[in-house]
Amino acid sequence: MALRLGTTATVIGSELDDEPRPADHIDLVDRLVAQIPAESFGGDLALLAFALPDSRPYLTAVTHLNRLTGGRAHSLAVTGQGLGSPFTALRIAMSYERSGRTSKSVVAILESATPDVSDRPDRVKSDSGVLLTFDTTAGHRRVEEIFTLNRAEAPRFAGLVSDTGRLLVVTGPTADPAITPDDRVHVHRASEGSYCTSVWLALASNRERWEADYDVIALFDTDPHTGVSHGAILRR
């Protein structure tokens, strides 16, 4: 499955004030879709992934995403898995593509800001979202693997690139910092302040430079609630 990094979008809202009114998922979807060229849409699958509740949960944001991007896709939302929800959404998209049920899909990863509760490890200060488009066109970076690790397991990044290749590991703010196998691996640690969108925001914000500089990009994040880690391997 090919990830079209050139059409990845990100939107980040303002920090919360004394009376927070976080953006709802419908609003985030509208703002993301507005940044994407129309030719990127019209696919077979529309997925929405989130970890924190929507401020207007009675609205079906994934149906809205489907309507805005062509209205003919299978659509479903993935949640209840903490920051693993986006990784599961990509796994679903990969399964659809491998079974021949889709050649083009879109995944929206959304996060509404939360009130200031000091003991919450998933406290986020800003609304954020990332929109990823996928197709089977050659020439784009492809999703090679999605993986999940329990507390006692460590990621294995050695061997992902040749001796002359370049590997970037993008970690979430709560991931174990001691994960690099050797000096050839570059690490980018995502900024604090987001939960399930952290590594995806970093990917979207740096996509052009990273696309040119690295043969393999590995996303890796650890959920502060469960200690379970999730990862994705993107190969050029």
Tell me what the structure shows:
By secondary structure, the chain is of the alpha/beta class. Helix content is 19%, strand content 28%. Helix 1 (25-33) packs parallel to helix 2 (61-68). The model is unreliable at 14-19 (pLDDT under 50).
Shape: globular
Low-confidence stretches: 14-19
Strand proportion, as a percent range, falls in 25-35%
Helix content: 10-25%
How would you sum up the major sheet? 11 strands, mixed
Q: Give the assembly state of these chains.
A: single chain
**Strand elements, count:** 11
Q: What class would the helix/strand composition place it in?
A: alpha/beta
If you compute it from the alpha carbons, what radius of gyration comes out, rounded to the nearest whole angstrom?
17 Å
List the helices and strands and how they pair.
Layout: E1 2-3, E2 9-12, H1 25-33, E3 45-50, H2 61-68, E4 74-78, H3 85-98, E5 104-111, E6 128-135, E7 141-149, E8 167-171, E9 185-189, H4 198-205, H5 207-213, E10 216-222, E11 229-235
Helix pairs in contact: 1-2
Quick gist of this model?
The protein has five helices and eleven strands. The protein is α/β, with parallel strands linked by helices and 236 residues long.
